[in-house]
Amino acid sequence: MGNTVTPNRTHVTTHIITVNAPAQTIYGLISDVTKWPYIFSPTVHVQTTQLDANNERLRLWAFANGQVRTWVSRRTLDPENLRIRFHQVITSPPVESMGGEWVLEPLADGTTRVVLLHDFTIINDDPDDRSFVTRAVDSNSNAELAALKRAAELGEYFNVLVLTFSDTVSINGALGDVYDFLYRADLWPERLPHVARLDLTEDVTNIQSMVMDTKSVDGSIHTTKSVRVCSPNKAIIYKQTETPEIMAAHTGRWDVREVDGAVELTSTHTVVIRPEVVSKVLGPDGTVQQAREKIQHALSTNSMTTMRHAKAYAEAEV
């Protein structure tokens, strides 16, 4: 890793890792941004717009030193040369400009050298702001490279560890009431039987942080921490920042839309299972398949409970 400053006050960082996987496998993980929220710990949510065959526009929400920031980037994909160039077109202060590149270098022994480059300038080149951004770039780059290595070295098995599923209910009520029920999570302890406690903060409009105590069927309490990106009357996307031991990642979303005069409410979860702890959590004979089934049952049960109460709330408001 290295940090340098050019005469025009551009700061340049280099982060490198060697991955025991083919370059094409790694390139696939980097190029598919839909996987970022459950592969890269800093990434909360990504919206993507394809501009042409090799260019796309991304809006990202990601952690920077513990704070969720959002910005818009443009990426140019170069699969033949195993490179992906990016630059921010809408920055998040104190960043004035930010760009960089992923460079994959296949090595003779079958491994791949992954180089992540950044170049950035800071508004007024303020020393404190420069330090803040440098720390964020270093922390996020190291976290992303380590996560990329873990996922790529699992090969095809990584797909077995990823579980995605959805549940949907139809509601004869107003879309705004359904969304409000989900958005006002601070009221869930009063409205939902499985929520014992919920602390919600929203320092930035439509970006929420929450700590929730959930009651299991056996009476035990499980505490989860999440961040939520809210898109009014459309969707709430969330990511758990502290997950149960068996999960390497857990992301999800609530989607509301009008369909044939009714409101369709859908809950979607994506979980990455940690295979190394399956036997510890489920017993010596536990399998990844059993973990998938148990996790889906538990999460689906809670989601359906929430959606049934949202349905009752919205239909009572009519």
Keywords:
318 residues, alpha+beta, Alpha-D-Glucose-1,6-Bisphosphate, Chain A, domain 4, 8-stranded antiparallel β-sheet, 7-stranded antiparallel β-sheet, 8 helices, 15 strands, 47% strand
Strand order of the largest sheet: 1-2-8-7-6-5-4-3
Strand count:
15
The CATH class name of the largest domain reads Alpha Beta
CATH topology grouping of the largest domain: Alpha-D-Glucose-1,6-Bisphosphate, Chain A, domain 4
Q: Estimate the global geometry from the Cα principal axes.
A: globular
Radius of gyration: 21 Å
Q: Report low-confidence residues grouped into runs of 5 or more.
A: none
Order of helices and strands: EEHHEEEEEEHHEHHEEEEEEHH
Helix coverage percent of residues? 25-40%
Head-to-tail CA distance between termini:
59 Å
The DSSP helix count reads: 8
* Strand residues, percent: over 45%
Number of domains: 2
The average pLDDT score comes to 94
How would you describe this structure to a colleague?
The protein is of the alpha+beta class and 318 residues long. The protein has 8 helices and 15 strands. The chain has an 8-stranded antiparallel β-sheet. Strands 9-15-14-13-12-11-10 form a 7-stranded antiparallel β-sheet. Strand 5 and strand 6 (83-90) form a beta hairpin. Helix 5 (175-183) packs across helix 8. The longest helix is centred in the last third of the chain and has 30 residues, at 288-317. It is globular.
